[in-house]
Amino acid sequence: MEHAFTANIKSVLREYFGKNADDIFEKSQLIQYINEKTRSANKGSKARSSFANLYAIYVIIEDYIAKEFDKNCDYSTYEGALFSNLFIRQRKLPFGNKLQNHALNNRLNAEFQKYFPNSEYIPIIRNLETNRYWINENLLKIKIGDSNINIANVIIEIIDEYVKTKQDAFHRFVKTCKDLQVIGKTTPKKVEEFIKGLLDPNVDARLFEIVSYSILKYFYNDKYIIWGFEMDKLNTENLKLYKTGRTNANDGGIDFVMKPLGRFFQVTETLDFKKYFLDIDKIQKYPLTFVIKSTESTDDLLTKIRDNASKTYSIKTIIDNYMECIEEVINIPTLKKRFKEAVKQGYLDNILDEIVIQSKVEFNQGDDDDDTDE
Question: Which domain holds residue 259?
Answer without folding.
Answer: 184-369
